[in-house]
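Changelog note: in this version the structure field was regenerated for every chain. One regenerated record is shown below for reference.
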Amino acid sequence: MNKKLMAVAVAGAFGAFGATAAFAQSSTVSLSGSANYNYGYFDNGGSANGGAAKVRTDSLSNQESEWVMKGEEALGGGMGAFFQCSTSMDITGGAAANICGRTSYIGLKSAGMGSISFGNNDTPAKRVAAGYDPFPISAAMGQGGQMWNATAGNTGNGGVASGAATSFSRRQQNLITYDMPRMNGFDASFAYSSANEATAANSGSTIQKPRMWSTFANYTNGPLALGVAYERHVDYNPGGATKGVIGAVQAAATATKAGTLGTLEVLQGNYAGSNDSMYSLMAAYTFMGSLKISGIYNRMNYNGITTPITGVGTDMTVATYGVYADWAISGPHRVRLGYASQGATKGSFTGTVGSYVGNAGAGNTGSQKIHGEYAYALSKRTEVGLAYARINNDQLSLISIGTGAAGTPNAGESQTFTGMLIRHKF
């Protein structure tokens, strides 16, 4: 009898706590997303510098379409828990994507302290730049390869995937992000990636802990906006230096440079001690409440690209900038314009690092791009329009106009895209 009474008392206590918690807490889940597509004609300009002519053709391109599930729960005392699950959506029949394969995370937040999240997330440097560039980052109208040396999605530290080691426009796995609360128009964010790849290190490779750091600070006051961002990649090894046997020629060069072979540190493994960085400056001003003029300047530095024993340079610097206009003319009419320039590479490195070509600072490795679109809003969620983009490469440059049929051009080749766009948000 006493056991039964005790069981009833315990059940009642838990029931009362559950009822109190239910009244104190509330949760919401929402589903949203976007479908963005370009259809048009890619012209790679024929052949250049003796390269083979490439196919000119029409192409239907997905431009970052996704569906997004978000949830939030109030925990009381100004605290809350939240999550996001974002998944690629491609109605053209593209490759299937994993659930939550795009920007996805879980976290806690406080009205007075900000938020902290864990997951597969855009870096702070990428997020702040999106507020100053009116175009998507990828496809024909994007500038990922030119302005940020490729786009990298769902990527870890360094790695072998295209653009994973070189890109400063990243959706980063295993990212821990702190966002401060917005105060008097000022907000900031800081993030770093956990060094998961280090667990694969063994006695046969140099023990390194690859990691990424990224931060931004942004200020908005009426029509004026100013931003700054900084990102650093540690042990990313963009040149792909790997463990190998020192040949006779290299050994002789090493002995000359270092006195004895034993005194030179040989770079080994997937991560060879590179230490790469980017800083960005951004500004925007909105005139008449409808014409936003903005600009972005980036400077990227790659260091420790190859092993010193090869005699090849180990550093490269690239500066890029973009100027944009986003004009809601009147009613449903809108025009977006952009001009971007990638300067010639500087530094001692000769070779390619991601999308950029290095030639020890000799020049002719830059590129310029113009792009624009006219958009007509059929509703608050749907717009259609016309688009045009052209990229001009210097004699040695290999920058592509974007993902699509054009592909990587021959050195010095220009590319154009002419087509239409359709976008729908839900």
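Spot check on this record: The two ends are 59 Å apart (CA to CA). Residues 2-24 form the longest helix (23 residues).
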